Amino acid sequence: MTTLLYFLEMLALSVWVGGIVFLSFILAPSAFVLLPANEAGALVGLTLTRLHLAGYVATLVFLGSRVARAGVAAQSESFSRSELLLRPAMVCVLLMFLLTAISQQVVRPRMEVARAEKTANVGTLNPSPQSSAPGVPASAAFDRLHRISVKLEGGVLLLGLAAFFFTAREYSHPIR
Fold it and tell me: What percent of the chain has pLDDT over 90?
């Protein structure tokens, strides 16, 4: 049973971290090479929203597996079951969830508004939809929000890698 629960934890992290790597290093760069900027942005935005949903599910799977593992762990004088819920991997996953929720619930909606304003201004102020209109507030807002979004996803990626490490370390040094 414990091996299955470890597997589910690692699977949840794999899907989440793998999705971020795919989006950041494969899909987004390719989309901006092959598609006009507005279409590429829409594709990346939709994919990011779905990745965030996958992150929510991965959090539930990881937490559920962790709680189940705490339930089947043997209680001893040197280990309490609740200790398993406060391990570094668990903290990393909770922080990943928090950053993902901020990205999806706060940053993404603001980016969509700024993108719509930027697109509306492109035709009148900037003839090329491939570039930002310097000095246009919507463009500056979008660029600032995009940088925040990238930093949030980068944070989730780094925390995910740390969670992988801590989970693997727990498996190689199980609590007895």
Answer: 64
Full domain range(s) for residue 102? 2-172
- Cβ pair 76, 83 in contact under 8 A: no
CB 84 within 8 A of CB 73: yes
Q: Tell me how far the alpha carbon of residue 90 is from its chain's centroid.
A: 15
> How far is it, in rounded angstroms, from Cα 64 to Cα 58?
10
What is the number of domains present in the chain? 1
Q: How far apart are CA 81 and CA 15, in angstroms?
A: 27
Judged by DSSP in three states, 159 sits in helix
Looking at residue 129, what is its pLDDT? 46
- The answer, yes or no, to whether residue 19 has pLDDT greater than 50, is yes
* pLDDT above 50 for 98: yes
